[in-house]
């Protein structure tokens, strides 16, 4: 019998969201004896529900509640109602992520110190450094079974065709750091099988070789008997008492009934659009601008990574779809080097698409022989995704629509993003380098693609040393409300050029230690 | 905290679009529409679209995504979902019928004959180019992205093998067979 907590049990930690942040936090807290209720907006799918079918899974698991793209980015034209490509379901976007587990670099935590004043940007140093997080990176890599790390002891995944063609080109142009720290089992690990190169990592790994909280952290948390998971439970607002401490959350249950769950501590991990949205929707007479928002930074400094994509058409077949979606990753450009004409750095990440997605994303809105002559060479393609540093800008962020409501009666979120001049420079450089890498192995045609809807969403509740500069402190604890925590990528102060999941997991492990300790000391 | 529309640079266009796949400029057609074999499809009449409208849409489909190696039934199959939708939705039915009429009218004006009778592909493409940002063209193109490329029957012609889990993945089926590097 699954554990159930009473709605008026005010000893529980309520966790909103069950992805990389929320799912990990629930398990880590439960292992330390803390009782948790996890409220997840989406359904509880199982690997049996996963199909090796791009559109079928897009429709099944994507967060498709209405959102509005605004600002100067390409998405207002290409994806006007799908600014972000993330998951609504137990496990959150760990169902969809490709599994690339890169660590941030030390300078990433010193964003402002590294780059100084950058016009138009709102840079800030993290209140923690790489050394603070290093032991937690190790624990995250071990937990997630990251291939090729000392922490897991697992060997690297084998090289698939897509890896080989990108790595060969990269070496020819002089790149040295060709890596693939993947949280995909290269052999059986932690009760899950080794990868059989299905090629549908981003449609939910049907064989559970790729780490996802859905079938790792969450069942482990539930097994402790100290965690209750409530799927299809959309949180509408967080409530507080007169002193300003949060006391519980109001949510809609699977039957459409409004419920209130009491809480000793509330941890918000709904990804970087929903998390600030929930704080803004929780505005009250005591907190008229939303919870934890005395700085005015809730919903601001939205980071997505600076991204672009391209396909290269080779002279002979590649069959990029055979095997792990993420192939070779070129890390040589990740370190800052102002001689390239921009701040920050980027990774070139080989990321395959199936034919149905290639047809949709290669040239959104495109048609004619220009498009079809490329698609006819689908099996000769390699495909890259540029993942670059994205500078915080205050006006980039999440706000609430003044009148339009969603199916829960909540204001529709407006997700606004405008490129910094630096972004355009990174994109240009990254695409030019991929062209060189591809042509070095004989590619005859390289087609630049617009960025996909954002899967990396960060920064809208950022960490700061001082309360006036951000939303949470070095533990992810709200500056304004001590029993309110942010437990997802929205607490990031900078984006780095690394995919965010590993850092979200490392921060969640660290935060769980802090919360459990503070509860024991009766500070919470 | 709310922000006014002007402050965010929100375009009116954003409001006019639906959510989800429509936001991608893509319509996900029901799988059932694609499970019929192309030959069976060729023989099967459409329920709502008139033969003349269907014929024009079929030609238009080929001009939008021209693949010389694909036989006509694939294009007919790709527009079949439009017939299904037109049967359920009068607005779609008239969008398609009116769109075809307008396309034929501009073809007659420019080339003295209806669209399907315009001999040169480049001339037909020019006619489509003139309407590519309009709702009729967008509707047809958006449907084709999945009507054509999500049709499993034609994947082998593009060298895409699709679902692999039921065959043990690609681990023993060529995931690392590249031999030309």
Please describe the topology of this protein.
The complex is a heterodimer of chains A (524) and B (181).
Chain A: E1 13-16, H1 20-31, E2 36-39, H2 54-61, E3 68-70, H3 75-78, H4 111-115, H5 130-144, H6 161-172, E4 178-179, H7 217-223, E5 227-230, E6 234-240, E7 246-252, E8 258-262, E9 265-268, H8 271-281, E10 306-313, E11 326-330, E12 346-351, H9 355-361, H10 369-375, E13 381-388, E14 397-405, E15 411-416, H11 421-439, E16 445-449, E17 484-486, H12 501-520
Parallel strand pairs in A: 1-2, 1-9, 2-5, 3-15, 9-17
Antiparallel strand pairs in A: 4-11, 6-7, 7-8, 10-13, 10-16, 11-12, 12-13, 14-15
Helix pairs in contact in A: 1-7, 1-12, 5-12, 6-11
Chain B: H1 5-8, H2 12-16, H3 38-43, H4 51-64, H5 72-88, H6 90-111, H7 121-129, H8 135-149
Q: In words, what does this structure look like?
A:
The complex is a heterodimer of chains A (about 525) and B (about 180). Chain A is α/β, with parallel strands linked by helices and about 525 residues long. Chain A has a single domain, classed as FAD/NAD(P)-binding domain (3-Layer(bba) Sandwich). Helix content of chain A is about 25%, strand content about 15%. In chain A, the strands form four sheets. Chain A has a six-stranded antiparallel β-sheet with strand order 4-11-12-13-10-16, with helices on one face. In chain A, helix 1 packs parallel to helix 7. Chain A is globular and about 70 Å long. The two termini of chain A are about 30 Å apart. The mean pLDDT of chain A is about 95. The relative contact order of chain B is 0.14. The model of chain B is unreliable at about 1-20 (pLDDT under 50). Chain B is mostly helical and about 180 residues long. Chain B has helices at about 5-10, 10-15, 40-45, 50-65, 70-90, 90-110, 120-130, 135-150. Chain B is elongated, with a radius of gyration of 20 Å. In chain B, helix 4 (about 50-65) crosses helix 5, helix 5 crosses helix 6 (about 90-110) and helix 6 (about 90-110) packs across helix 7. Chain B has a domain at about 25-40 and about 45-150. The interface between A and B is large, with 84 and 60 residues. Chain A: Its EC number is 1.1.99.3. Chain A: It is an enzyme of class 1 (oxidoreductase). Chain A: It holds the Pfam family GMC_oxred_N. Chain A: InterPro entries: FAD/NAD-bd_sf (IPR036188), GMC_OxRdtase_N (IPR000172), GMC_OxRtase_C (IPR007867). Chain A: Keywords: FAD, Flavoprotein, Oxidoreductase.
